[in-house]
Design goal:
Elements (H helix, E strand, L loop, with lengths): L4 H4 L1 H18 L4 H19 L12 H4 L1 E4 L4 H9 L4 H7 L3 E7 L2 E6 L6 E5 L12 H12 L16
Antiparallel strand pairs: 1-2, 2-3, 3-4
Length: about 160
């Protein structure tokens, strides 16, 4: 990348690729070596795809183009990376959520599972130029929830004490 754009999007791309790889690992049945290869192939495919569609000064520009989407159709970038490790689209549909949207934008990577799911932020960094980072508290909770697994009760659960 002559403009140096490649280096700028490394964190965003590796965050997004790691997330899809984690989903595959969680589904089971895919070996670690395959997962590593899948992740590298996906990062490479994304880098190539986003090369001329990355605008740190206007982060939302080209967002639709960079959006990774599974919605009864397999996202071509995921499909391509999976093909490199011998996973068919049919197999991918069994392993990954049937509806997944992943937005990979400068300074922010977020995802939504299901059409009405809440949007969770995977990565966010303040934009250069001093625009204050968007209020995060309410949105990180859902990230944590994903990490912990939905079965555990929320932390505020046992905080209620009865004062005499």
């Amino acid at each position: 990348a002559a403009s140096g754009a490649g280096a700028d999007m490394r964190t965003e791309i590796s965050t997004a690729a790691a997330f899809v790889t984690r989903l595959l690992r969680a589904a089971g049945g895919v070996g670690e070596e395959q997962l590593r290869c899948f992740r590298e192939c996906l990062q490479e495919a994304m880098r190539e795809h986003y090369k001329h569609h990355w605008f740190p000064l206007v982060p939302s520009k080209g967002s639709g183009y960079r959006c990774i989407r599974i919605n009864h159709k397999m996202d071509p970038l995921i499909g391509k990376a999976a093909g490199m490790i011998g996973l068919s689209h049919e197999r991918l549909f069994q392993l990954l959520p049937s509806e997944l949207t992943l937005w990979v934008d400068p300074f922010e990577v977020s995802y939504r599972i299901g059409e009405d799911g809440s949007i969770c932020v995977l990565y966010e960094s303040p934009q250069p130029g001093g625009k204050a980072a968007k209020q995060l508290e309410s949105r990180t909770s859902c990230k944590e929830e994903w990490r912990i697994g939905r079965s555990s009760p929320s932390k505020t659960y046992n905080m209620m004490t009865v004062s005499s």
